[in-house]
Design brief:
This protein has one domain. The protein contains three helices and five strands. A five-stranded antiparallel sheet has the order 1-2-3-4-5. β3 and β4 form a beta hairpin.
């Protein structure tokens, strides 16, 4: 279980770096050596928190698009993240998963509530491999 969490967080780190570098291949010399180094980079700690938050929701069976017990991996999204922004909070992260055996991409916007620092799922949707929205999920 700990290995799965660590692997997922490492993928999250790579996705976050991909956001920063655009769709170019990142320079390996600029990649963080470990998770602690990644957390020290701008926005890194919040990116890790957003990923952990979604993983916890999935374990509890409360992640839209995932049934309890389903597994997935984080992937680099197939769209320009700047096109989708939080409407209510400037501190947000877009996280994308793909289920085993499913080519759909599951997108989530996680925001931090400024008043108390808690995290909240603001938006969730499923897209095809081309990035076109197939289904929007109700977020509770």
């Amino acid at each position: 279980m700990k290995t799965l969490l660590y692997s997922t967080l490492m993928v999250l780190a790579v996705v976050a770096l991909w956001y920063g570098f655009g769709r170019r291949q990142p320079d390996p010399a600029r990649l963080p050596a470990n998770m602690e180094e990644f957390k020290q980079r701008g926005g890194g700690a919040f990116t890790v928190q957003a990923g952990e938050y979604l993983i916890d929701r999935a374990k509890q069976g409360h992640l839209p698009g995932f049934s309890e017990g389903e597994h997935g991996v984080m992937i680099a999204p197939n769209f320009d993240p700047a096109q989708v922004e939080s409407k209510t909070n400037p501190e947000s992260r877009i996280v994308c998963f793909r289920k085993e055996g499913d080519s759909s991409e599951y997108y989530y916007i996680v925001v931090r509530i400024p008043q108390d620092g808690t995290l909240r799922l603001e938006k969730a949707w499923r897209a095809n491999p081309s990035g076109q929205i197939v289904e929007e999920y109700r977020v509770q």
